[in-house]
Amino acid sequence: MKFTLSRLKLRYGGFWGLSKAAATGLVIAGSAATAEPTIITAFGDSLTHGYGLAQGDGFVPQLQAWLRDQGADVTVVNAGVSGDTTAGGAARIDWSLADEPDALIVALGGNDVLRGQSPEAARANLETILQKAAPRPVLLIGIGVPGNYGPDYKADFEAIYPALAEKYDTLLVDDFLGPLAAQAPIEQVMDTYMQGDGIHPNAAGVALIVEEIGPKVLQLIARAQSRG
Question: Can 118 be counted among the known catalytic residues?
Fold first, then answer.
């Protein structure tokens, strides 16, 4: 959140005839009165977009409601695109940053795994996104990888996220669907928290995810506000 003269649309000429102390007080009072919400762009794929869910049940609206319940003055922008890969994200990140959000949630990689794309390519694409996002604070969200492509692929892909989080000093959530994977037994998880495709969470599943990720987003907001 930036309390700058340009963002508040204050002009120097408006302070003519005021003492320095009075002008300073007016700036502070005006800033407090017109403080804008922190803008967070949620940049991801169908998990972010809310595939298969009614309006209001997806990740972004549920996260928005959870944050407001915690007293956060924040607007979460849905920049999720169903089917998007890390390559697609790298190609559209400039467009998503055009509105100058205060912070980003980056949650991509699941579709790369579904297509068997290389961990090296996914890491390079995510690195492009993080480089362009700077200096905004970022919450990077990884994805759990099944063993279909072997243990080396799984280990290499899952290692991308903590490595990039350390390199670029981002906040980190290891696995978007982790809160669901932690439930047991798996048959009950599929029936209770997942849509019929077995890939996307239902509204109840999203609620569990938001409860887990929400505190990290509060940390993200604090980082954004500390930048002024």
Answer: no
Token output for 222: 């604090």
Per the DSSP assignment, residues forming a β-bridge with 96 are none
In tens, the pLDDT along 98-115 reads 999 999 999 999 999 999
**Residue 13 in this model has a pLDDT that exceeds 70:** no
Question: Which one from 45, 84, 96, 200 is the annotated catalytic residue?
Answer: 200
CA distance 91 to 221: 26
What is the per-residue pLDDT across 168-217, written as a single tens digit (0 to 9) for each? 999 999 999 999 989 989 899 999 999 999 999 999 999 999 999 999 99
Which position among 19, 69, 197, 226 bears the catalytic label? 197
Taking only the tens place, the pLDDT of each residue in 40-56 is 999 999 999 999 999 99
49 catalytic residue (yes or no) = no
Domains, the chain, in order of start with CATH, read 1-36 (no CATH), 38-226 (3.40.50.1110)
The single residue of 45, 46, 84, 175 carrying the catalytic annotation is 46
Q: Is 197 a catalytic residue?
A: yes
| C-alpha to C-alpha distance for 180 and 193, rounded to whole angstroms | 7
Dihedral angle sign, alpha carbons of residues 75, 81, 85, 91: negative
